[in-house]
Amino acid sequence: MTIVDFSKDEKAILVRRMQAYFADELQQQIGQFDAEFLLDFISREIGPYYYNRGLYDAQTVLNARVEDLQDSIYQLEKHTDFRK
Hints:
Elements: H1 8-26, H2 32-45, H3 47-76
């Protein structure tokens, strides 16, 4: 898996959101450096779990669509004396 690399602007948004969370929910102030450090840690250590879950969810959706497509193709099939 490649490491997700956010742009400077994206990272700034994430850092601000993290700082807001700390202030609102934990009544703690966290500086930009600490927030960036924590964001990097979460991305590196926890991010892969979310990434993999996204892949599993995408695979489930894709499998359902393939099954629907197979059913649609089966419905088009004409009766013949041949067997599968």
